[in-house]
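From the shared-data thread, chain only:
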Amino acid sequence: MDISIIFKLAAVGILITVVCQLLKKSDRDDIATVVAIVGLVIALTVAVTMIGDLFTTIREIFNLTA
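Structure, as tokens:
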């Protein structure tokens, strides 16, 4: 786990925010909502993957078997 993942998540957040604002200014609120939900799903997928890796590492450190 390194800091580049945090920067990638921040970049996705900024990109989604800009796209949503552009769509809202052009009266496309429905598409802006869909874009925001897709961005949230992408960010949550990355976060869940990282949490899974964390649990795997903790399991390996303490020699726990499931």
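The longest helix spans residues 29-61.
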